[in-house]
Amino acid sequence: MLSEAGLPVIEATSFVSPKWVPQMADQIDVMKGIIKYQNVSYPVLTPNLKGFQAAVAAGAKEVSIFGAASEQFSQKNINCSIEESLQRFSDVMKAAKEANIPVRGYISCVLGCPYEGVVAPSKVAEVAKKLYSMGCYEISLGDTIGVGTPGNMAKMLSAVIKEVPVNCLAVHCHDTYGQALANILVALQLGVSVVDSSVAGLGGCPYAKGASGNVATEDVVYMLNGLNIQTGVNLQKLMDAGAFICSSLNRRSGSKVAQALCRL
Amino acid sequence: MGNLPPAVKHCLHNQQLIREYFWSEQQFQQEQVIVPTKVKIDFINQLSEAGFPVIEVTSFVSSKWVPQMADHAEVLLGIKRHPHVKYPVLTPNLQGLHAAIGAGATEVAIFGATSETFSRKNINCSIAESFGRFDEILRHAKEVNVPVRGYVSCAMGCPYEGNIGPAKVAEISKRLYSMGCYEISLGDTNGVGTAGSMKHLLEAVLKEMPRHALAVHCHDTYGQALANILTALQMGISTVDSSVAGLGGCPYAVGASGNVSTEDVLYMLNGMGINTGVDLHKVMEAGNFICKAMNRKTASKVSQACFNPC
Predict the structure, then answer these.
(1) Does the distance separating the beta carbons of B305 and A208 come in below 8 Å?
(2) Is the model's pTM score more than 0.95?
């Protein structure tokens, strides 16, 4: 349904070990089962070489890796330093290059960390530069706990743009504090033209129970339409997809547009 | 953006209760919550403590039409007035103005619409007739030295007429301003505005009115409010209306949100280094208080995140 809606990139699944994340145990089935539209890219997350190999075997044509802008977050999340985590990915980068598979890099905690608090823009720029020089074609800057505001979004982006060309940057804003659309607007004003989001705002925040997490794609598209930005995405079809998944998961949509128009 | 000194004006849910009442007769089943007078007074006192420079207290509308506002005089007389805080009240007609002044009001507000259909359905008269009423109010308010703020509804779209041209909004705003309103608050009544349409709207209005006399009153029905407010700030607007806990639903879409939450606006302004003089923590406490009293969940994402930490 998402492919039908016109989204150019749909992250399909994560090739993480099902031992750790049972919800992703069907990664191969999902990857093989979806209809792959011609002009749509279906990247998958690959936390290590084993995951990468399994992803390629299942037909993946694009993968993603991730680092953090905060040492403490890196330690607590994946048990190693930022530098060590990037070195672990060098195997994946090498294999991906040999197989001609583009790799996207995510950076967590770009506007704040649940452990360290404030994260310096220079640190984000440093990690972005490393991922870019390792071979990532695009770097997605993630406000993992949604604490960012237009103030620090602008400062962070200004620092990163000095190290990585703006057309290779994306923003991944969380809406935990309701700031996502304002932050995305600032990013657009600074030249960023790739925005991550999640239909119906699925995906909560593990750091604040009951709080929202991902920004809802429907709300982002509504804003972009209002700005006359051509996305090629059909908002009605997007809302249909949102209605479908919310009904299946028996939960309310996190999208205000959907709530207003479809009473979800 | 610099260090703008915005006045964050709190627009109490009472205003939305008026609209909810009118619309409940039309097609929606709205939950009519009568908030006890003492609770309203406590709440407003907490807001004064939080540092708001302006708190809209109540509406002097006839209690026959809006029973939730029957205690308007009692509330206005009961609150503790802080010296640096203004406590305007809504006055839909001359009778309301007299009653408001009788109860000690020192500032009032009137509201016009840009859409004929909305004007007729909301206040039972045409735009032209409503201006007749405003003229009476403004003349009398001037005689007794009471400043009047003007609201313009449907500034970015109308639930009946759809798109509203920025030129029309500019015309209505200019008229209210030249009649004597000291400030005009542009209301995105059904929350359909976006950063794009906010920019076009303000470009048109700023041709007719000085920046310092404008405010924005954004609704968050489509999640666009903060982006719209940001756009307004970037264009030099420095007065923003909001509602603690985002109280006040949208009568045009059952279950959808309405007013933008003050907490979320403040969080953004603080993050931008804008000095508002308002204490976010006290605002969240006030929000927590009123939500408990009304037995409802806050609409503020900042409050949701802060009151449920892991």
Answers:
(1) yes
(2) no
